[in-house]
Amino acid sequence: MGFFSVFLFLILCSFEKAIIALAATSPEPHLPPHTTHTVEINSLLPATTCTPSTKGHTNNKASILEVVHKHGPCSIFHKSSKTSTTKSDDKYHAQILKQDEARVNSIHSRLNYRIHDPFTQSSASATLPAKSGLLLGSPNYLVTVGLGTPAKQLSLEFDTGSDLTWTQCRPCLRYCYTQSEPIFDPSLSASYKNLSCTSATCTQLSSAGIPHRCSSASSSCLYGIRYGDGSFSIGDFAKEKLTLTSMDVFEGFLFGCGQDNQGLFNGSAGLLGLGRNNISLVEQTAMKYNRFFSYCLPSTSSSTGHLTFGNGGGSANGVKFTKLTTLSERESSFYGLGLTGISVGGCQLPVASSVFSSSGTIIDSGTVITRLPATAYTALRDAFREGMKNYTMTMSFSLLDTCYNVSGYETVSFPDIAFGFGDGVTVDLDAAGILLAVSDSQVCLAFAGNKDDSDIGIIGNVQQKRLEVVYDVAGGKVGFAPASCP
Ligand SMILES: *[C@@H]1O[C@H](CO)[C@@H](O)[C@H](O)[C@H]1NC(C)=O
Ligand SMILES: *[C@@H]1O[C@H](CO)[C@@H](O)[C@H](O)[C@H]1NC(C)=O
Ligand SMILES: *[C@@H]1O[C@H](CO)[C@@H](O)[C@H](O)[C@H]1NC(C)=O
Ligand SMILES: *[C@@H]1O[C@H](CO)[C@@H](O)[C@H](O)[C@H]1NC(C)=O
Ligand SMILES: *[C@@H]1O[C@H](CO)[C@@H](O)[C@H](O)[C@H]1NC(C)=O
């Protein structure tokens, strides 16, 4: 957007404020109605029972998997652990946000080329966050896939920021954490095969930045992956039959069969890697789906969304596409987008597009809260606070510094927020993508600033809620359409 149009926006937005200021004696909201959301506070909070989406799971062109939040009432983890997330469970949110900081730090350090090699660090290392590990760093959204012959159902956390798919495997030579479903046992599967450490496939791990070794006993290929918070998985890099739906079966799918798994993933069986490197599920299924997938993350953890592979989900209507960018040769796993501006309550923030273009932006399904360059976040926060003037601010919550006491209110009205991309595409966020309800009396603006303007911006999963997010990797674009799941 050019200087003059930004300038025009500013005049219009200031003008609007002036008119509202003149009328300040009337109990009007601070923003005109078409630029605000009004929602029931309850709708931002998860219910204690699961309300699955009624969306069908059959489609002759695409494979549709149900997406559930790991800690909501729709997940198997929740049923087995019986730790219900209550409406005022702010400890739960505090833990999620702490874990989110660890993930963002690890993304920033990956981009700063500090790679961890789990083989060179003792796996009994005291640096592991011993008991804080429950939620730390894990992407939180689960899908269930089948692995092996006969197929065993496994709930994996899907992650567009990772490439390698892995699950815990028996006999858990060193360690397996508790998971909800039975741990995968390769000795009971007719289609499991170790890979030789001299095979070209084994060395492909390097291109994904994943260290590998040769097993001294069997000269099979060992992988080791360590996440930013100290969690890790080490085991055999192997081939197995992967069943997404009865129509979508992949022989010889490459995955990690983890014999030493520790840290954050507790509850789920492992991870489904949807990154851009060629060992990811997206690349391994490219022949069938042509690198096309989409998902919708539900507004709360008590409803369900979907993850769809292939371009047949009927989601093509109303999708606005923006160009997919690649960050660098070295760090090609992430999905880069050309974010150039943000508007709040219909007004473009006075932030130069160069602030966004010099940091760069990725979209990540596993980061919770969107991170912006510090300069952009400050402008967003100031504009949002201006629009929230008639609510009482309350203390910060974890990394969220713009929170309101909504005790006694049934509804809350707040400025809408839209992302602007360089190719003229504007994406309006859903109400659930703007405010995080920490409890029934505290809501917070669900954005945070990076410490440094040069750190990459990340569009997190809160901001993606209820949007159909469409990855057309072969077509070099990512698209958004409003409200495709509850
Ligand atoms: C703030 O504005 C909303 C929308 O008009 C109104 O319903 C609410 O009562 C106002 N709150 C206060 C504290 O004035
Ligand atoms: C892992 O989850 C199980 C429930 O599935 C729970 O009983 C256990 O305490 C958790 N372990 C850790 C280390 O958090
Ligand atoms: C795969 O390799 C591991 C050693 O890394 C070995 O323990 C296991 O028995 C092998 N499995 C098969 C099916 O060859
Ligand atoms: C994956 O990438 C590596 C390195 O870029 C390359 O050597 C390898 O051939 C690729 N594999 C496939 C299956 O495309
Ligand atoms: C919110 O306001 C109510 C009274 O209006 C008060 O009792 C409560 O302590 C406040 N909560 C927070 C988190 O500020």
UniProtKB/TrEMBL annotation:
CDD domains: cnd41_like
Keywords attached to this entry: Aspartyl protease, Disulfide bond, Hydrolase, Protease, Signal
Signal sequence residues: 1-23
Molecular function per GO: aspartic-type endopeptidase activity
Pfam families: TAXi_C, TAXi_N
Record-level GO BP terms: proteolysis
Protein name: Peptidase A1 domain-containing protein
Species this protein is from: Prunus persica
